[in-house]
Write the structure tokens for this entry.
Amino acid sequence: MDIILGKARRRWSIEEKRALVAETFLPGSSVNGVARRHSINANMLFSWRKRLRVERGFAAEEACASFAPVAIAGPAASEVTAVGSETRIEIAFASGARMTVTGAADPALVMAVAKTLARR
């Protein structure tokens, strides 16, 4: 015979869920930290966040991150400096051409190559 003594399942009201989700967005706060403080599973809190975003019409968190187009023009190109030999920049052009700049590079040379690849 097995005897299982477990805790009763907790129920969270919509207001409580929203308050906990709002707490995860406070500066310096994290989902794991909020979950630990309230003794709930972090995955449950993540699912509440996802549902709230859908209810409010916001994009999913995964879809929020993206790259923005960048253009360097005029004198700004001469101000570009390399931080160190670990620096790496990858540029993909609409034509399918790709350019990778590793380490310190002359800004004028990078601009000349980028302009040539952009024309293709």
Summary: The chain has two domains: 14-64, 74-119.
